[in-house]
Amino acid sequence: TGTPYMLYKDSCNRKSNQQNLGTIQCSNLCTEIIEYSSPDEVAVCNLASIALPMFVDIKEYTFDFERLHEVTKVITRNLNKIIDINYYPVEEARRSNLRHRPIGIGVQGMADCFLSLRIPFDSLRARELNKQIFETMYHGALEASCEISEKYGPYETYSGSPVSQGILQYDMWNVEPSDLWDWDSLKQKIANHGVRNSLLLAPMPTASTSQILGFNECFEPYTSNIYTRRVLAGEFQVVNPWLLKDLVDLGLWSDQMKNRIIADNGSIQKVPGIPDELKALYKTTWELSQKTIIDMAADRGAFIDQSQSLNIHIAEPSYAKLTSMHFYGWKKGLKTGMYYLRTRSAADAIKFTVDQTSLKEVLATEETDIKIKSVKCQLENKEDCLMCSG
Q: Which residue ranges does the record assign to the Ribonucleotide reductase large subunit domain (predicted)?
């Protein structure tokens, strides 16, 4: 089933700006909302996501942090307006939203952002950009919230919160921010005027909304370079658009190439003729270390005052693997340890949507290549071959 969803209660409470309200005992379905509820209050999440590829200059291979900062401030102002004019189905929800005014800003298309910048998902540059993006968003949201507070006053339960004491999210993680933004000046402004919102960032799954602009979900890597999308009109094969462009530009795209990638379950790692540079760029989540995924989650977590919908992908899970993964994420200080646990299916639906004769030809060719390599291994690489090493 991919469940249960796992959150770490101590981190959720110790790093919450709502800790002055009481103990947070639950989250939402998608595990990114960490808000206080009580018998007379129902927590509300007011969400919006930012499409990260829109801030990439594909000619210069640069990312516009100033523009991201500006857009985050606009979203913060708009979500505050929504809180004020929204329809509330129950009084408990209205009371909670107007008292604490939490918002949750997330992202979509981080994988597309990396691909447009030609950055492998598991590279040091990707890890640094991931951190800078969320530092920028947190600073922008705080600055806008402070500016609104200067005009209308801080949210009702501001007094006694960590932010009211000059403690921001990264302080609770014992992390030093970069010099990308002036945090000292912002802290001084907050000390003078407070903030309008108790919570600001909460990267959500964006499983449906990311399809509007055609981007990959939230901060996740691609799960496959070819997949099936089901709509009312039927099922369609969808190819990673960045990979498709690269293969077309190199003159490598063909029906045979498509069938070969499908035969390899959407992976290009074993496809001959594709340059190593592209193989590094187009690793699927199954080919990435989940340690890398958790490390990146912790890096951005220092600037996320709610939490994040973090999926874990393990092709063949075991108690040992899951235990190791959870303890690693817990020690890194994550609030959400796991949204869904994704595993490999026994059969791949997309393989049933292609010509089976072509698919068998590809697989037969691959099997022949493996047999030839096996013979070569036995004759030429006796020390490295498991069958020859005794």
A: 183-205
For the question of whether the overall pTM of this predicted structure is more than 0.85, the answer is yes
Kindly tell me the burial class for residue 21, based on how many C-beta atoms sit within 10 Å of its own C-beta (0-12, 13-18, 19 or more).
Answer: buried
Beta strands 104-108 and 47-51 are parallel
Burial (CB count within 10 angstroms: exposed 0-12, middle 13-18, buried 19+), residue 47: buried
Per-position DSSP letters for 123-163, written without gaps between them: SHHHHHHHHHHHHHHHHHHHHHHHHHHHHH---TT-TTSTG
Could you give the CA distance from residue 107 to residue 48 in angstroms, rounded to a whole number? 8
**Hunting for tokens 């600073």 — which residue is that?**
139
Between CA 127 and CA 178 the distance in angstroms is 14
List the beta bridge partners of residue 201. 105
Name which of 18, 27, 52, 15 is nearest 338 in CA terms: 27
DSSP SS3 for 336: strand
Which domains, and CATH codes, for the chain? 1-223+288-347 (3.20.70.20)
pLDDT in tens, 78-116: 999 999 999 999 999 999 999 999 999 999 999 999 999
The least confident of 134-143, 255-264, 295-304, 328-337 is 255-264
Element (H, E) at 74: helix 65-85
Q: For tokens 């801030």, what's the residue? A: 55
Question: How many Å apart are CA 196 and CA 147, to the nearest integer?
Answer: 8
Give the 3-state secondary structure of residue 110: helix
Q: Which of 97, 4, 8 is nearest to 47 (CA)?
A: 97
At a CB cut-off of 8 Å and minimum separation 6, what does 190 contact? 142, 146, 163, 166
Contact 216/113 with Cβ under 8 angstroms?
no
Between CA 68 and CA 137 the distance in angstroms is: 7
Distance, in Å, from the CA atom of 107 to the CA atom of 71, rounded to the nearest integer, reads: 12
Catalytic residue ranges: 28, 30, 32
First to last CA, the chain: 42
Instruction: For 128-178, write each residue's pLDDT tens digit.
Output: 999 999 999 999 999 999 999 999 999 999 999 999 999 999 999 999 999
